[in-house]
DNA sequence: TATTGTTATACTCTATAACTATA
DNA sequence: TATAGTTATAGAGTATAACAATA
């Protein structure tokens, strides 16, 4: 081990978080949308049609990047572009029925994989993870606010 | 919310894990190596020179994919290829001093970002996260073994 | 024959710069 | 002028198929 030995909380969290992240990326097979695409489908499903610019900001990809992603999703019939009646420069992106179904399938698949992993864990470990979820969620929120507050 | 409301442990973990994963990907700026590259640099730093095939298996990328990654890392002077004296088909990849330094800088940067996030958390939440780390590590391990056992 | 690694090729995802149309 | 979105182009990252050299 050549790394500065971890005493700070961040140093302790880092290796575990890295492993979990790598895991998540592995579950993401070619049959399921990328994490950014999933975030877009989720937002459109939960909150209705949205602007390209807003989706780009939400997922922190560039505006052209979002145009391109929407193009791929539209080609796959997962979303649809409709003109924005209030601003003729813009478009509204809305999720299709196929998009909603894929989002659902993705969610079920991921949850099933995670459930399988929990089955390998002792009851104590399972409980410890579940009990920490609210704190972990707030940690994630702190991270999301880290840049969106100061920057932009 | 159109998603099947989560009662299983996997369903509860999924949204939190997704947010943490997205966060990790955001911290990974263009100034730092990708997660696969980081895993390679870490392995070479911790355990000495390694074969392309072993690095590919470790990180679960294809053998050509690893050849290409090593090519990019070598061009950036982060690793170096040396002939394997024991098997003339193979090469040994070893990390350079610049590679070690970058790995260290990456580690420090990530840990610092996570520390910043912890500072936004209440002491109770911080403790809850830290206490859950061993269980989370075992969960990650269960995931890593999920495919490596049965498959391959 | 099997294994190690590479080359050839293609596809996804993402970025920056330059552009068009509307406000 | 500023904003919304697109097009053009380039690069990282990854895969499969075909190949060369060695075991």
TrEMBL record, chains A, B:
The keyword Transferase does not apply. InterPro entries: HTH-type_Bedaq_tolerance, HTH_MarR-typ, WH-like_DNA-bd_sf, WH_DNA-bd_sf. The keyword Ion transport does not apply. Gene3D superfamilies: Winged helix-like DNA-binding domain superfamily/Winged helix DNA-binding domain. GO terms for molecular function: DNA binding; DNA-binding transcription factor activity. Keywords: DNA-binding. It comes from the Bacteria. Residues 10-138 form the HTH marR-type domain. This is DNA-binding MarR family transcriptional regulator. It comes from Actinoplanes campanulatus.
């Amino acid at each position: 081990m050549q790394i500065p030995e971890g005493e700070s909380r961040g140093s302790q969290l880092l290796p575990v978080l890295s492993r979990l992240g790598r895991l998540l990326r592995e579950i993401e097979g070619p049959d399921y949308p990328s994490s950014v695409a999933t975030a877009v489908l989720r937002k459109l499903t939960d909150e209705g049609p949205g602007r390209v610019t807003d989706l780009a900001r939400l997922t922190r990809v560039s505006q052209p990047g979002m145009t391109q992603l929407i193009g791929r999703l539209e080609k796959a019939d997962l979303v649809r572009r409709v003109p924005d009646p209030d601003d003729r420069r813009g478009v509204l992106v809305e999720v299709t029925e196929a998009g909603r179904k894929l989002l659902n399938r993705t969610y079920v698949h991921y949850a099933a994989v995670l459930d399988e992993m929990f089955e390998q864990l002792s009851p104590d470990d399972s409980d410890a993870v579940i009990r920490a979820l609210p704190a972990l969620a707030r940690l994630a929120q702190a991270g999301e606010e880290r840049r969106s507050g100061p920057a932009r």
